Amino acid sequence: MGTVEVAFSALPIHVRTARMVTKAVAVRSGVAEPLLDEVRLAVGEACSRAVEAHQKHCPEEPVRLALTDGGERFSVSVSDSARAQPEDDGLSMAVIKGLADELEIVSTAEGTTISMSWPTR
After folding, report:
1. How far is the first Cα of the chain from the last one, in angstroms, to the nearest whole number?
2. Positions of the chain with pLDDT under 70
3. Backbone dihedral angles phi then psi of residue 38, each to the nearest 5 degrees
4. Residue 99: what are its φ and ψ, rounded to 5°?
5. Contact, 112 vs 66, CB < 8 A?
6. Which of 25, 45, 109, 119 qualifies as a cystine partner to 67, CB 3.0-4.6 A?
């Protein structure tokens, strides 16, 4: 299937759309039904975190979401352009860590990318 990329304005209402798109692509990629809620919730949490950071620090910049069907794994990356992190970042990251099968967090001067993945059938 390849990669689906979505860029959206830093508005909380778009987090719901990101969750719905993620679930649809995850199903198409072969993520098992019992994992779909975990995928949807983890992506929602990562997107909410990015939206909050953007609203405070760079409201005009879009949040970026990349969904990749890599054959044996379904991968999701949520990228923000905020140089500062939200105050509740510890709680958000704890939730994401509990839901993602694999997780990588990369923070640079340009922002943060949260990359997560789950097995496919």
Report:
1. 14
2. 1, 84-89
3. -65, -45
4. -105, -35
5. no
6. 25
